[in-house]
């Protein structure tokens, strides 16, 4: 942020602009808190000093790959200078910290096998900034020095934390997890487990697609799916990703019967959300709204193999003298419905996450190539936003922490 002390006549600066975001120019006059400047395009503008930033005139025209090479201190001004000097830059270093800029588009050429080979064994800073350089440095320290490593992935919502974590896992699996049995490598199982966890752990939103939509009907017709009015994401093929998710389930060892059970539970939850209530005959009581609500109730009950109507419209109070049944009004019945849906989905996700996915990778024969011990599972249980991966090459572990609910390992 500019101040009267660091912004003077003749200063080269960046100024915030509502149309271009940032424009650069030279200050030609200052009056109070307002600075007049001529932009590089010859336009004269007036801006508040607090909204202009010193420009690093010593920075190379093409930008730098490490912000510590800039003459300015590490602040918003220097970051602005760097980004505007090289707007196509995907990654930037600040010392040994990697800053990633979300391009909101797929760049497969940056993460393919060829790129992994380029960074394999390369000294940190020798090549252009890349998350593979961070992953390789951690991997080398883990193997050569026998020291456990941690990689912290942080950022605001939609910054790209999940995709970054997936790419880190891909590189680590590429380096140390290629051994396997029954035609399924450890790398395959680890990476495919990401798709399954992603399918159940996140939601599809406008900016990105963190989940895969299950083909259980038109999403617009289900209350639990139509609240955001987001049904499609550009360049995403839901049918293909659904098939990829089913294939991932096969790869990680989820049987066909278990897959069928999973989808029955998901379908039941969606039908639960469509059950509506109206006021019943008694005070503070409720009943199903209409035949449509009855249909969804019966379908959910059949899928869950459980009677539901009394459970939704009533609550049981347990006392030392016995159980008392109390009716629920329509609003409380709806809350009861939603609570049931949440806890069933939560139990399904827990079963997936902790029992099926993690144990399927280890129990499939990968224990010959991956170190399994109690501390591994303690980490998963007590730190749900942290994931541990023990590679075939050694007994130490690389922990990747990402501020999202889904575990990656």
Write structural notes for this entry:
- The structure is a single chain.
- This protein has 409 residues and is of the alpha+beta class.
- 39% of the residues lie in helices and 19% in strands.
- The protein has eleven helices and 16 strands.
- Strands 4-3-2-1-5 form a five-stranded antiparallel β-sheet, with helices on one face.
- Strand 13 (314-319) and strand 14 (322-327) form a beta hairpin.
- Helix 4 packs antiparallel against helix 5 (186-201) and helix 5 (186-201) packs antiparallel against helix 10 (330-363).
- The chain is extended and about 80 Å long.
- The relative contact order is 0.10.
- The model is unreliable at 364-396 and 402-409 (pLDDT under 50).
Low-confidence segments, given as residue ranges, are 364-396, 402-409
Distance between the termini: 40 Å
Question: Care to count the β-strands?
Answer: 16
Task: Sum up the overall morphology in one term.
Answer: extended
- What share of the residues lie within helices? 25-40%
Helices and strands, in order, run as EEEEEHEEHHEHEEHHHEEHHEEHHEE
